[in-house]
Each structure stands twice: as structure tokens, then as C-alpha cells.
Amino acid sequence: MFTGIIEEVGTIKRIERGQHSAVLTIHAETVLEGTKIGDSIAVNGICLTVTKLYSDCFSADVMHETLNRSSLSSLSIGSSVNLERAMPANGRFGGHIVAGHVDGIGRICDIRRDDTAVWYTITASADILRYVVEKGSITIDGISLTVADVTPDSFSVSTIPHTVSHTNLSKRHKGDTVNLETDIVGKYIEKLLRPETLETPQKSTLTKELLLRCGF
Length: 216
Hints:
Elements: E1 8-17, E2 22-27, E3 40-43, E4 46-53, E5 57-62, H1 64-69, E6 80-85, E7 104-114, E8 117-123, H2 126-129, E9 137-140, E10 143-150, E11 154-159, H3 161-165, E12 177-182, H4 184-193, H5 208-213
Antiparallel strand pairs: 1-2, 1-6, 2-5, 3-4, 3-6, 4-5, 7-8, 7-12, 8-11, 9-10, 9-12, 10-11
């Protein structure tokens, strides 16, 4: 599990592409501290397993499903990526619950300044936007951000200068694709309210009225 608080921006050092997969080697410093082979590191919001460790970089395998659902397939040597180690049990929960399992990609359609803040507006598909709630949490390339506005085909976030300068948002431009992970809580509630199985649907005792009575 991650929190969406980026620890550092790394750089793609090498890409080994297979027929349906890839191996990324990423230059880093901070996230290498205390890291072992088999540990998890979120790369642009995607949970990857460290397969090789070096003094100044690490390697991770990227499977077919991950390439299909994310923007990792568009990375090239020299690309900047947001990095975060898995949250330690005794760590601070500075962002929100981030699984590192990307729901899909969005595209930046507008970037504008508002005094010191920078607004990013991102278009996304309807199956992602259904879970995006104004004042709720969204993960963009692994960054935990608060949704400021939602429209039928896009949403916007307002970022502070510190977030922009300490992540790869500073290198983003209009038209760039970004990885999106919506708040996992909403997806679990939807699944419980509308249980579906490949076999005979099971009748759930969880109802909207019950959730309201319990304060949800």
C-alpha cells in the first residue's frame, strides 16, 4: 500500500522491451535506501516489484496487463517518473489509500496558473469518472491530489508549487497522458451494493438504507 506522497523523481535509464512485456531500469537515490529485491516501489503510481538492485538504480518487470492499462508503454530513456516506496507500518499517512493498481489513463487538456496554484484539467473515460468525486481523492501518476471540480468528461485538480516542483508535474504539458487510480473505497462499496459473480448471483444483506443508518 502507498500514500501518494512522492519521495523523489527518478529517471528511466534503460528499457528492455519484450513482445508483450518490458523491463525498466530506473535511476534513483532516496527510494533505494533500505530497499531489497522483492520490495514494492510505485512508479508513476504503478506498484512494481524490484527484481534487481544496483548502487544507483533498480530494475522491475512490467507485464502485458500493466502496459495495456497505463502510460508506462510511452516512456523512453530519460523520462522522469514519480517514485514512492511502500508505506511502512510505522509511517505517516500523508495522502490517501493508494493501491498502486492503475484504473486507466487520462489526458491533460488544460494547464493554467491561478496566483501560486497550478490547475490541471484531465479528460478521462466514463468508467473512471464515475468514481471521481469533488473534494475526493485521486491519484495522478502516483500523486495523491484532491479533486477540485468534475464535469461529465473531465476533472480538475489545483496543485501547490511544492507538489509541482517535487514531482514530474513540472515536466507535464497539454496533451500528455497520465496514470489514474480512483479512490478504492468507492469501488468496494459499489461491489457490495451490486454483487455479481460468474455463477448464480448471491443475495446481499447490505442495502443503501443499512449504510445510511450506519452513517455512510
